[in-house]
Specification:
CATH class: Alpha Beta
CATH architecture: Alpha-Beta Barrel
CATH topology: TIM Barrel
Strand order of the largest sheet: 1-2-3-4-5-6-7-8
Number of helices: 11
Number of domains: 1
CATH superfamily: Aldolase class I
Radius of gyration: 17 Å
Helix content: 40-55%
Length: about 250
């Protein structure tokens, strides 16, 4: 749950540190080192997506993260037997079920929980039974919220890509409104609500200001910003932006 002071949690995704490593081969840069730096810089958790094609995070990375991290690991994965077996072996703090296609560059949109309810049910049940906190990565849509709730997943993560991809203006504002409505509805039906995908310094504050959101997961932007300012500096700046968005507005007397 959210912290007593209302502070929004920051989960840092280290996938694209591994992308840079894999472009050259070898061991540098090390995503586990990045995860430890993120923890020192104020991250509340680490997210890593073990994809079926292993294009960035590797099985060894997950094993090391489980061993070396002192903050929670959120394992993103597709609902497959292979990934279920890996999750049940490592038992991370949380698993976020996401859609996955081999040809995509990154996760495109949310998981169709409503359409795949019967397929997803045994995966959610086994993960929950193992004591793993299950999250469903979904669009800001009431139908997907209800389906996630009916599966017994305690958490949803709202896909913020459609909001982040729009330039400032009415279309972006409409996407923000969708997120606000969905986050409020998630809380109303008893779901813990997170959000993520594509968030950067210019888009994070309006999302962070949504009062029923408990956690934001941010990765690609922070890894890119690290080229210019350093990883720890980028994370600290994001942490400040999130905290500013949650600060009460002071009214002048």
């Amino acid at each position: 749950m959210s912290k007593p002071d209302g502070r929004l949690r920051l989960g840092v995704n280290v996938d694209h540190v591994a992308t840079v490593r894999n472009a050259r081969g070898g061991a540098h840069p090390d995503p586990v080192r990045a995860a430890l730096l993120a923890a020192d810089a104020g991250a509340d958790g680490i997210t890593a997506h073990l994809r079926e094609d292993r294009r960035h995070i590797s099985d060894e990375d997950i094993a090391r993260l489980m061993t070396e991290l002192k903050i929670p690991l959120n394992l993103e994965m597709a609902a497959t037997e292979e990934m279920l077996s890996i999750a049940l072996r490592h038992k991370p703090h949380a698993v976020c079920l996401v859609p996955e296609k081999r040809q995509e560059r990154t996760t495109e949109g949310g998981l169709d929980v409503a359409g795949g309810h019967n397929y997803l049910a045994p995966y959610v049940r086994q993960l929950v039974d193992a004591g793993i906190r299950v999250s469903m990565f979904i669009e800001a849509d009431a139908r997907q919220l209800y389906a996630s709730h009916s599966l017994g997943a305690p958490v949803v993560e709202l896909h913020t890509g459609a909001y982040c991809e729009q330039p400032p203006g009415p279309t972006r504002e409409a996407q923000l409104t969708r997120l606000q409505i969905a986050a409020a509805h998630a809380a109303k039906i008893g779901l813990e609500c997170h959000a993520g995908h594509g968030l950067g310094f210019d888009t994070v504050k309006p999302v962070a200001a949504i009062p029923t959101l408990v956690e934001l997961n941010i990765g690609h932007f922070l890894v890119g910003e690290a080229i210019f300012t350093g990883f720890e500096s980028a994370i600290r700046q994001m942490r400040v932006a999130m905290d500013e968005a949650r600060s009460p507005i002071k009214v002048r007397a």
